[in-house]
Design goal:
The chain has one domain: Nucleotidyltransferase, domain 5, CATH 3.30.420. The chain has 8 helices and 4 strands; from the N terminus they run ββααααβααβαα.
Length: 172
């Protein structure tokens, strides 16, 4: 998923959805997606896709992305290599977003990069290599919430009206 903040307001498109990045094309990826196309971000770099690849490569016994992150943290070079591959795929997709939107900041919530800054550097490197507008990789960051980013993000969207206009929200 995606969220877009414009002048301090979280954009909520139709159905309160800001966007979906699952089917962004990942340059150089030929992985077939359930949607029928190949090279989609979801099919290439989602937790599910990465965990299945880890099982096929014998890195973990069952498809669990968190096991792959744990294996890399424990020193498994195969897990580390897979997480770096994933980070580069995320970085290539991030480059597309940078080129289309040219935002001041991109907050990446890819789990491995939340636990190990080396993976964030892989994302940044691939984004800069593939973007036409981004030459400042420091604008690609991990969220301050760390691994608690998803519940914090959900709460931020719900609380946004209160923070934007506290008096109007309290009257309702």
């Amino acid at each position: 998923d995606a969220a877009l903040g414009i002048t301090g307001v979280v954009h909520q498109g139709p159905g309160s959805g800001a966007g979906d990045v699952a089917h962004l094309p990942v340059p150089d990826s030929t992985v077939v997606c359930p949607c029928g196309r190949s090279g989609c971000l979801e099919a290439t770099a989602s937790n599910t896709a990465m965990a299945r690849t880890a099982v096929r490569r014998g890195i973990v016994p069952w498809a669990d992305a968190f096991l792959v992150v744990d294996a890399a943290a424990a020193g498994d070079r195969r897990a580390d290599r897979l997480l770096r591959e994933r980070a580069r795929a995320v970085g290539r997709a991030t480059a597309l977003l940078l080129d289309v939107l040219n935002p001041d900041l991109v907050v990446v919530t890819e789990h491995a990069s939340l636990t190990n800054p080396e993976y964030l550097e892989e994302i940044r490197g691939a984004a800069v290599d593939h973007s036409h507008v981004c030459r400042d990789p420091e604008r690609i960051v991990s969220p301050h919430a760390g691994t608690a980013v998803l519940p914090v993000a959900a709460g931020a969207v719900v609380l946004n009206p209160l923070f934007r206009s506290p008096l109007a929200a309290s009257v309702r």
